[in-house]
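Quick one: structure for this chain?
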Amino acid sequence: MNDETSAIGLVRDSVLRIGTVSGIDGRKVHIAVDKNKNSSNLLLGGEIIKNVSVGAYVEIRKGFLSIIGKAEGETLREESSRGEPGASDYAILDRNRRVLSVSLVGYIGEDSRFKGGIKELPLIGNEVFILTGEKIHEIHNLRGMGTFPGICIAHTEIEEIPVTLPIDGLFNSHIAIFGNTGSGKSNTLASMYQEMISVLSQLPRFRENCRFLLLDFNGEYEDRDCITSEKTVYSLSTRDDTHDRIPMSRERLLDVDTLSVLVEATEKTQKPFLKRALRSFLKAKQATDCAAYVRGILTTQVRKTLQMAQKDVAFRLLDYMEEALRQILGETAVSCTRDDIEFHSTAGTFKERGGKERYFNAHPKAIEETALYQIVETITPEHFAELHELDQFYVFLHLKLIDDLYEYKVQNEHIYPVINRFRSKKPSIKNLFEIDDKHSLWRSMNLAVVSLRDVNLDMRKTVPLLLAKNVYRDHKETGSNKTLTIIVDEAHNILSRESFRETEEWKDYRLETFEEIIKEGRKFGVFMTIASQRPNDISETIISQAHNFLIHQLINQRDLLAISKAVSYIDKVTEESIPTLPVGTCIFSGIATPMPLKLAIRELPEDRQPRSQTLRFEDITKEPEADELARAQEEA
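Got it. Here's what it folds into:
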């Protein structure tokens, strides 16, 4: 029996042997291929085996150690030999000697497990073999000896071997998915998380301890069954107030950091002003009668302003008072606030218009008879209570600015731009957020999809920044043993280094916020997955912090250069294949795999795919089928 087994092994090895090591240059090994192994396929026990070629793996046997290499190139070596004694002295050229250039990627040890890296270099003369099916499976076994489940969404492109990706090692890391539009990156992202959530949802504490926030710029993941049906979807819009709104507690929305992000306040001048205005506003909200509190502030400001000697400053303060009153009482209420007052330049003060013409600096009690003062006195609790919280805060921005200008604490040209931004963004903020102290962003689910498809350009950068900043801060406050994954599709919209719609200061703040998350988040259980068609546009710091890469077809030279800088462990042959990758095929490389793998990602069923398919003219121009017409009529 042993003799028979030994004979079978010898026959097997003779078929699988392709040559011997003929040269060693660091990690590069040159293999002289046997002359009888130049065919495309080999026959072993009735089974057709692919012969070695560029991109395939080989086994170099050095004693009991199997060194694994990947063929990266092939050349033809001319070998000369002389004929029999007495024959011509001319050399006979044999041009059929193939030489493979192989890069070492790992080894299979005594435990029969594949390990990445170099333990030993081969020796010249060591035999080289085609990998058996068992060993091919072993080098693609990314889970190793672990028992925790993995996900199977792909197979190797050449050998078509199913590859199980490890959940631990992949999803507890920062992931970057890059590829041109239409290359399959959205399908890859959806497949990964659909399978991962499907596997882990069977475990008891998954929903409680693992949360996911998906920032969807193009509305691709809104469909009911995309990724999972158990998700909370926010379809946002700045066009009207009929769409979803993100719940946010009063404390969090009326927070100086949140407001600074929303209105892009500068750090040294505008943010401190917002903080003072917010402190005054919250103090008023705690008062027994908020309307009386506002009346008291305004009547005091009217008295001070009408006794001022600086005409320009005084009229500016009157403008701001009227804007505050306009917000509280409406436009018609402030139409006559200055009919009975005027500024006397010679006396340097305000006075009554007509009649007694009393100067207010000499007769301060006369101020109480002015239309402006009387209008302030008409403010009731109902007037203030009917205002939205943001409108109320808008009033206090003006009240605080009046106080600061009167006391010469600030310069108007430095502060009023932030109030203008607040006024212009106030309708969008109302449409996107609601004050809700009871519900969280995820509600009863652990996946929240925020669609920004119908959000205007001003808020498309602000909302993701605000959400990421808040959920990151909340997660750090909850402690350990929980994970948060922030997924950003079309990440160049928010992580781009180039932006012409914001100041340099705010571009730096936006990038620094996400860079902090991706650099420091891992220790708090916070991980990021970014997908983009333009890696060159994304901050180099963010790309450099990614642990695992799935790279689909990229053509632009700058994008390819960005990849080559960030992913130094991709071999030259693999890197050069990126521009020609088929749709759905990607290069998987990173800490979750000991070597780069070329994987074909399984396409999701149509009802589970993201809405990123390319429209076909054949489909949109042909005559509709009868059942489609019937369905359209029924819906109508």
